Fold this protein.
Amino acid sequence: MKKITIQSDSICIIGNNAKSVAGAMALTHFGLSVTLYALSESPDAHIKRYQFDTALCDQWVKSIDEGSLNYQVLDSSLFTQPSFDVYWVFLDQLTECLQEDVLQYLESQTCDVCLSGIVQIGRIESISKRLNTANVFYIPFVFLNEASVFSATIAPKLLLIGEKSENTAINNVVCKKFIDNTSNFHLHNLKTIEFTRSCMMNLMASKLSLINELARLADHCSVDMLEVETLLKQDDRLGVGFLRAGWGYGGSTLPKENLILKQHLLKSNLSANIIDEVELINLDQKELIFRKLWQYFDSHISQKSVMIWGAAYKRGTGRTKGSAIHTLLPLLWGHNAVTTIYDPLAEDELMTEYGFDQRLNFAKSPYDTLEQVDAVIIINWSEAYRPDISLINKNQSPVFDANNLLNKEEIQQLTGYYTGIGRGIG
C-alpha cells in the first residue's frame, strides 16, 4: 500500500543534471510532490538522458502517472510563478548567468533554500549570505556509489548537511526526509560541509592514483594486485573503498573536485603538487592498457581488430565522461586499428560524441565476432553475469583487462594471453 504523506510545503527543484532528477525522484518516492524545472523541452526528453538507470526511469514514470512530479521547462517564466515554500537548487550544469538569475530571484523570497553542487569552497556560504532566509542548507551528494544514482539517493549511506543556522535542518521538509532515511547523518555549518566534501573526493582520487602506482610495481614483482587489495581491506585504518586498481577514474565529480582544490590551494599560495601528481597518474593510467597492447603486438597493430568491452566510466551507467574509452579510441584509430565496442548503456552517448564515424562499430553481444578479433580490451562490465571464458578461448584472443574484471580462477582457465593492471601476469 502506497505511503501517504500530508504535505504542507510546496517544493521546487531547479537543476539540469542526474542528481537533480535523483533528488526529485527520491522525494516522490518518500511520498512528496515536487515541481522540477530543467532545460529539456519535455519530461520524456529529459528522462531519456538517463535511460540507462532503470530504477530512476521507473520512478519517473510512476511519479508522472501519480501526479507527484510536475515537470516545467526552466526559463524566465519561473520568476513569474507563485513562490514555493522550499527551493532546491542544483548548481552544476547551470550556466553562471542562469545561476545568477535564480539567486537574484531567491533573494526576494523568504522561503527555505537547499543547495547542491560541486563548487568552489566558500561559494555556498557566500550564496547563503545573499539570501534573506535563515533556512539555507547544503546537501552534497557524497553518498553516490557504484549503484543507481536513484538507489543511492533514497538510502544514503552517509548524509552531510550544512546549515546556515544551527539545528534548523530537522525542520526543513527536504532535509527531514533524507535524515529519516539514513542511519548516518551529520549536520554542521556550511563551510565545514563544503570543505569536508572537497577533502572526501580528493582523498578518493588520491587513493585511486596511489593504488594504480602500486599496481604497476605489482606487475614488476609478479604479484596479483587483487589479492593484495583483499588483504588491504582487512585493515580498518585504510577503509575498503577506492582500493581497486584499474584504468583510473572518470566521470565529472572527481576531476572537477581535483581542479577546485588545486585552484583553491594556489589562490592561497599553497602547494598543489600532490593534486598535480594525482591528476598526472590518472591521465597516464588511461593509456597504460594501450601500451600493453602495443608491446604485445610489437607495435604492429595496423588493421588489427579490437573488441572493447565497456565504455562507461563506471559500472551500471551510460555516462562516458572521463572514461578511458576517450583516450583509447584515438590511440587505436591513430594506428589504423579496427574497433568494435560492446556497451549497450553507453552506445547512444558514444554515437553523440563521435557521430557516425565509420571506425566506430557496435556489437549486440560481447561475443559477437569474437572468433575474428585480434584482441579484447576490457574497460567496464555492466552485465549481471560473468564473462564466458569458453567463448573467449575459441579464438584464444589475448585479453587486456583494464578493469581487472577477471578473477584468478578465470585467468587460469584462459588458453590465450592475459594481462591486467597489476596482476603480475604479462
